[in-house]
Amino acid sequence: MLLMQTHAAVVQDIASNYTSFVNASNGGFGFQPWAISSNGNGGPIFAGSVLGDSTIGAGNINTSGVSFSLFAHPTAASVDASRAFTTALLPGQVFSFKLALNSDNGNKGFNLFAGSQGELFNFNIGSGGSVSSANAVLNPGSGAGYNYGGNDAVINVAISVLSPSSLSYQISRTSSLGNQGNLFTGTITGLTDAVSSFSYYVSGTDNGAAQNTLYINNLQVVPEPAAGLLVAMGGISCVFRRRVGR
User: Fold this and answer.
1) CB-neighbour burial class of residue 195 (10 A; exposed 0-12, middle 13-18, buried 19+)
2) pLDDT of 125-154, one tens digit each?
3) Under a CB-based contact definition with an 8 Å cutoff, are residues 97 and 199 in contact?
4) Strand 166-174 with 129-132, pairing
5) Which H or E run includes 204?
6) Under DSSP, is residue 165 helix (H, G, I), strand (E, B) or coil?
């Protein structure tokens, strides 16, 4: 029981908590409200955010039939959904979420930020996939790289804070086509500020087909499993000592 408690999410949000996905909405805990902006004007530029069924355009990451969804078309269109953590992430914490996406036209992706340092990490899908860091040092690890994953692709992203100056990333995929398992892994070093916020974005896709939408769900922050295990072992040790003392 103690082990399960130490692994409980300290920050969490899912799309089924919402009746609409709009600017300033907040159905989770441990996050500031969503800050959503777009240049959509109802035509000829279409861009925005909705609650949508991810299985229409990509893999199944729904909760109660819905996911957070971002769309932007044609070339000049863009939408950004940003959010801050209520408290900056600490060493030993893991931020994870699920993405579902299909076509790689335009750009779709995720940014991670650290206070005044700015962008630490970017994962972008656009004519392929890539990872980068604008203001820290990216140290790539193993990974199959990105290619087309079919119409049922689900991507799992995990960001682990290793120390006040470093983090690791793991981006993996399950789908019926293309590379599976870990697509990108590695570390980012040279952090001078704590991880404080993130954003998802879409820009310049071909059209309004569901296959061009970015779907997002199951955002959470949990303690590192090893940390939870140490706490649990500490509790077991205390019980053992008490029994021996008797």
Assistant:
1) buried
2) 999 999 999 999 999 999 999 999 999 999
3) no
4) unpaired
5) none
6) coil
Contact between 164 and 91 (Cβ < 8 Å): yes
Distance, in Å, from the CA atom of 145 to the CA atom of 128, rounded to the nearest integer, reads 9
Cis peptide upstream of residue 223 (ω within 30 degrees of 0): no
pLDDT at 224 (0 to 100):
60
Residues 240, 62: Cα–Cα separation, whole Å: 44
Nearest to 219 by CA among 63, 52, 55, 48: 63
3, HSE (Cβ side, Cα atoms, 13 Å): 7
Q: Give the pair of three-digit tokens for residue 225.
A: 């499993």
Q: What is the pLDDT of residues 9-57, one digit of tens each?
A: 899 999 999 999 999 999 999 999 999 999 999 999 999 999 999 999 9
215 near 61, Cβ under 8 Å? Answer: yes
Which amino acid, 45?
Answer: I
E strands, the chain, where?
11-13, 35-38, 46-52, 67-73, 78-84, 93-100, 107-114, 118-125, 129-132, 137-140, 154-163, 166-174, 181-189, 197-203, 214-223
Domain architecture of the chain: domains with CATH: 12-221 (2.60.120.200)
Question: Do 60 and 189 contact (CB within 8 A), yes or no?
Answer: no
| Tens of pLDDT, residues 67-85 | 999 999 999 999 999 999 9
Give me the phi and psi of 211, to 5 degrees please.
Answer: -70, -15
